[in-house]
Amino acid sequence: MCEVVLHDRQMFHTTYKLFMVSVSAQLLHLIIMCATYTQYGNDGIENYTAKTFGIGLLTYHSTVSFSPNFLR
Question: Which residues, 6 or more positions from 56, have their beta carbon under 8 angstroms from its beta carbon?
């Protein structure tokens, strides 16, 4: 919704795209980590796959989203 309004006003710049990718990846990271720790708190069995995926997602995002060819 906000992207459409900004695009119509020609204000949808690369910096805003980068910001939206960053916020989305960090939100997904938080959701995965909260789910992992909730499951660990309930049954005491740590899910290494989901935890590694959540941490890897944040690491991958910080590497890929700041490369110059990502948002073209």
Answer: none
